[in-house]
Structure formats: structure tokens, C-alpha cells
Amino acid sequence: MGAIKTIGLLTSGGDAPGMNAAIRAVTRAAIYNDLRVKAIYRGFKGLITGEIVEFKTQNVSNIIQQGGTILKTARCEEFKTVEGRRQAYETLVKEEIDALVVIGGDGTLTGARIFASEFDYPIVGLPGTIDNDIFGTDATIGYDTALNTILDAVDKIRDTASSHERLFFIEVMGRDAGFLALNGALASGAEAAIIPEIATEVDQLEEVIKKGFRKSKNSSIVLVAESEKTGGAMHYADRVKKEYPEYDVRVVILGHVQRGGSPTAFDRILASRLGEAAIESLIDGQRNILLGIDNDKVVAIPFSKAIKNDKPVDPELLKVLKILSI
Ligand code: F6P
After folding, report:
1. What rounded mean pLDDT belongs to the chain?
2. 176 is annotated as an active-site residue
3. Ligand 1 center to 5 CA (angstroms)
4. Catalytic entry in 15, 106, 131, 133
5. Domains of the chain in sequence order
6. Per-residue CA distances from 278 to 114, 126, 134, 282, 325 (Å)
7. Mind listing the pLDDT tens digit for each residue in 266-301?
8. 14 CA → ligand 1 middle, Å
9. Which of 8, 101, 168, 323 has its CB surrounded by the most CB atoms within 10 Å?
């Protein structure tokens, strides 16, 4: 493989606030280093169909503060097939794109890894997902913003929960990961968090719920991570309603509101640092790595490691939550 002259850039999977900041950083760092940038629309789907536009610095002006992704995104079934990936490769050859920067979550990075090894093609991945479930990085782009959106919502729900002396189950996103639920609960002063990583029985909840209704505290909030393993907020609410009819129970499913909004300073800085580092890594000859942040330093993790390992939640945090919710 000769020197890289043109890089392709795409976002894929669920959008996350800060993806635009990453697009801006990758584009500007590439142009700064005399590389051409070809933006690929609609993720891997656009790579297969050839939806590609050359970007100049002005294409990424005024986007650092915008949520979503200006490149659009998609979950692409075709890219899971050998034929789909072959078509994607043909597009790259035709467009003379020498390397790819791919911004997305678990599924995106898995696709990138397979493609990179099938075609011996240089790819650098950036972790863009609100779920924070990527191994090797302390944080993913979008997680901090989503967490703050959750806090804003929970603070508001607390007002009405206290006024009516109710028990609320609030379902947050995260697919199979409990980071948003656990840290959202800690930061909002919720009474408990139910996460897929650690099984919670309804009777375990009784103690916590009762604590929420002691004299000085007349409401209870439980954050539940959406997941087949937890069964979601409705599952727990139904059971509590049946087993403890004395509680006035309500459910809120926060849903896609968590994916939108202007990125926080943390996410903008993370995205900017990782985007710039992606270009430096490619120029240095690194490939098939995910860039992440570890102790405030940008780190490179081989795709194989980032994808194979599950990122664990810290069980200590559940303990802290329990202690602080008395
Ligand atoms: O991966 C991000 C995420 O928001 C998950 O938390 C959630 O399970 C999923 O995407 C929802 O995906 P969609 O927007 O395709 O329904």
C-alpha cells in the first residue's frame, strides 16, 4: 500500500451527539496534512451505493455544536454480506480512497474489522455511541451528552414524583450495557439502577423503594436499562404494582430524546481529539485500530481487542449508589 492521499469518512449505526465534531476534526486535520477527504453518506450503505462528496474545510463549518450527523447514518444489512462488502470495496477503488475513518458503535466497528481483514484495507475507528459500551476507551463520543440529557429529565421527573409521592421507573437506552442507567442513577440521586450486567429481583427493590418513602423523602426513582435481560421498566413496574399495590407507580421511557441535542463540552473535546488523532495515526502507518481515551490520553486499541472484549461496568458504583440512597 502506497502513501495515503485520500481518506474516506463515514458515520454508521445509531447517531450520537459529537459525531459532527468528529467529522469536523477528521476533515480539517486531513486537509491540514494535505490529504483529500471524501465524505460518504448513510454509512456503509452509502459506501455500497457510492453516495460520496469531496469535503473542503467549509463543509464542516458551524457543525461542532450540532447533534446528529450531517453525513446521515444507517444500520446496513447488506454490509453484513460478502457481496455487500465487495461492492463497498469496489466503490473505494473507483473513488481512489486509500483509507477509511469510521465513526460508530459496536456493530459499526465489527463491520469495519471484518472489511479491513477481508480486503487488507486500512481503517481507523472512532467510538461514537451513547451506550459507552466499547472496550478500551473510558468514554465514547455521545455518552456524556446522553447522560446529561438523562439527568435533565430525571430532575424534572423528581419534581412531579415528590409532589405526588410516586414511584417512577425510568427506562434509559444502552442496549445491553448499563452505563447510562448506573451513572445516570448516581448523578441524579435515584434510589436504584437496574442494569443487564447484574440481575435484580423485585423483592431486592422493596428495600430501596421503602427507603425512598421515608419521612424526609417522599418519592422513589429507579433507572432501568432497556435490555432483554432486564425486561425494561414496564416489566418491573408491572410486578411492583402487583406485589406492592400500596405504591403509586408510573413509567417513563426516555427513548430517542437521549440521542439528540447539542454535544457537551466533554463530547466535543473528545471528538476533536480523536478525530485529529485518526489522521495522525493513518499518516504514521497505523491501521485497523480503534482510538479511545484512557486516563485523558488518546490510545490505540487493535480492532480485535476492542470488539472481542466486553467493557465491564464497575460494580463498586452500584455499592456507592446503594449507600447514598439511604
Ligand atoms: O446504540 C445506540 C442505541 O441508542 C441503543 O441505546 C438503542 O438500543 C438503539 O441504539 C436503538 O436503535 P434504533 O434507533 O435503531 O432503534
Report:
1. 94
2. no
3. 34
4. 131
5. 6-142+263-308 (3.40.50.450), 144-259 (3.40.50.460)
6. 19, 8, 17, 6, 42
7. 999 999 999 999 999 999 999 999 999 999 999 999
8. 6
9. 101
